[in-house]
From TrEMBL:
It comes from the Bacteria. SUPFAM superfamilies: N-terminal nucleophile aminohydrolases (Ntn hydrolases). CDD domains: Asparaginase_2. It comes from Vibrio zhugei. InterPro entries: Ntn_hydrolases_N, Peptidase_T2. This is Isoaspartyl peptidase/L-asparaginase family protein.
Length: 313
């Protein structure tokens, strides 16, 4: 008899405005989220690993221009794309992370490669790309990542002299862009993966919480897998993903209590906006956010799919 398995994903949390969401764009978001879930679910249903499932799910989101990861990444102050990603598997606590890559089509796949085929756990910039090309990755020109939407965002942010948007053209222009997935496989293993293009107009090689194990990404068998999205500087300061795991491990809190205590508690009081997706050892997923929305979805252990956008859904 097959053991239970499940998967959950997010496509970023923050200000997502209903009044600016057209029906066509709404449907496209739901379509991409469903495709991501189905890609990960297919791996799990065939007895595949949680690691392969979260990579498959995140890859779909990286390939979509709708999300701030991979192809849809925001631009830096130099009009370039710099991407970060991380993955962690819960059985042996193996991890792989990269930051500041510019020519890798799917950063989450490179993060897995660092975990599996490198003696290190975190590679950055030119070094990460040198490792990638040695492993056979194709050099991807920056043109692949260019979208009119992200260029327009950069121009508006520059005018405001900020690293955040002062006005919104799209329903989610004020959203903190990250994508992520958590999964439980039939062997009882948990895994988490997170990928991001960072923040618009970022400078000085800025890195947020997404590739930092214990801040934006964490997985531990028998406990929980977590992928975060939000104002990275605050998630780093609060070590959100690791804090969720610690509350569950040492306080015996369930996944919902642990997540909500942090996201709606100290993080929010600090001024940190965002959210997370977490999955416990039984395959129970929980989404927590202190923002108006978060692109998210899950397929539970019974095969039921749910996809949502707004916080009040």
């Amino acid at each position: 008899m097959a053991k239970p398995f499940s998967i959950a994903i997010h496509g970023g949390a923050g200000t997502i405005l209903r009044e600016k969401m057209t029906q066509a764009l709404h449907d496209e978001f739901l379509l991409q989220l469903e495709a991501s879930l189905c890609a990960g679910q297919a791996v799990l249903a065939q007895g595949g690993s949680a690691v392969d499932a979260v990579v498959s799910a995140v890859t779909v989101l990286e390939d979509s221009p709708l999300f701030n990861a991979g192809r849809g990444s925001v631009m830096t102050s130099q009009e370039m794309v710099e991407m970060d990603a991380a993955i962690m598997e819960g059985r042996a606590h193996n991890v792989g992370a990269i930051a500041g890559v510019r020519h890798i089509k799917n950063p989450i796949q490179l993060a897995r490669q660092v975990m599996q085929d490198s003696e290190h756990v975190f590679l950055i910039g030119d070094g990460a790309e040198a490792f990638a090309f040695k492993q056979g990755y194709v050099f991807t020109e920056q043109d692949y990542f260019f979208t009119e939407r992200r260029y327009e965002q950069l121009m508006r942010v520059r005018q405001a002299g900020q690293c955040a948007l002062s006005e919104s053209e799209y329903p989610d222009d004020d959203k903190h862009g990250t994508v992520g997935a958590v999964a439980l496989d039939q062997q009882g293993n948990l895994a988490a993966a997170t990928s991001t293009g960072g923040i618009t107009n970022k400078q000085y090689g800025r890195v947020g919480d997404s590739p930092l194990i214990g801040a934006g990404t964490f997985a531990e068998n028998g406990n929980v897998a977590v992928s975060c999205t939000g104002m990275g500087e605050f998630f780093i300061r609060k070590m959100v993903a690791g804090d969720v795991a610690a509350r569950m491990r040492y306080l015996g809190e369930d996944v919902a209590t642990a997540c909500d205590s942090i996201i709606h508690g100290e993080l929010k009081r600090m001024g940190g906006e965002g959210g997370l997706v977490a999955m416990d050892a039984n395959g129970q997923a929980h989404f927590s956010m202190n923002s108006s929305g978060m692109y998210r979805g899950a397929i539970d252990t019974l095969g039921n799919m749910v996809i949502k956008i707004y916080a009040d859904e």
